[in-house]
Amino acid sequence: SWCGDSKREVPRMLKVLENAGMDTGQISLIFVDNAIKQYKQSPQHEEKGKLVHHVPTFIIYDGKKEKGRINETPVGSLEKDLLAILKNENYQPKYKGISFWTKEVKQRKQTIQEEELNRLALQIKPLFLHAGEFNAYGYTLLASKDFTEALNVLKLNTLLYPDEPNTFDSLGEAFEIIGNKPAAINAYEKVLVMNPTDANAKMKIASLKQ
Q: I need a labelling partner for 182 at 20 to 30 A (CA). Which of 25, 43, 62, 121 fits?
């Protein structure tokens, strides 16, 4: 209920299914948290292994096999997107950059070096619409304690959007969570270069230097 997209799209999806003749009383809704330590996680962890990075996420299965999904908002409309998935058309949900990353980047469990990150940034930049895409994914990885992958993602986001202070703020928070104070301070200092009045960055640096 904290997510505006869920408030809008979930009732719409229920209405679509109801009009298609489905008994919506048989539907279970799985809620996820907004707190950093449980970000996009449910109490029973039904999301585990399902790559839920934006909500709502509607996953369509044929038996146990995933046929497709709608991430956060439909590309066309819920009806058109569902029909495309069911007809096995070449449907691509939102957040193509994240899809590319999870399918094509083979070093996800290793620290990716800066040279490789720069190459990847040039390659996948056209797939991204805004910094919030990888930012949300990075926090999802942090919550699941996949720290190496989270740092890869958040570092890459600073290369994709080097002029946005929030990308460095998120990277600083990631380093802070894993206990790398010097790297966290360095990231927060970059925030202040772009926004000298950022109170959160000033507070974080002062706290980390104690």
A: 121
Task: Check if the beta carbon of residue 118 is closer than 8 Å to that of residue 142.
Answer: no
Residue 61, strand partner residues: 66
Please give the C-alpha separations between residue 29 and each of 8, 57, 81, 98, 183, in angstroms, as whole numbers: 14, 11, 20, 24, 39
**Residue 4 is encoded by which pair of tokens?**
């505006």
d(CA 44, CA 24): 22
**pLDDT tens digits for 46-97?**
998 888 999 999 999 999 999 999 999 999 999 999 999 999 999 999 999 9
How do residues 23-38 score in pLDDT, each as one tens digit?
Answer: 988 888 889 999 888 9
Q: Is 178 in contact with 194 (CB distance < 8 Å)? A: no
- Which is nearest to 72 in space by CA: 40, 28, 108? 40
CA distance 47 to 147: 18
Whole-number Å distance between alpha carbons of 24 and 99: 30
User: Which single residue is written with the structure tokens 């590309």?
Assistant: 75
DSSP state of 84: H
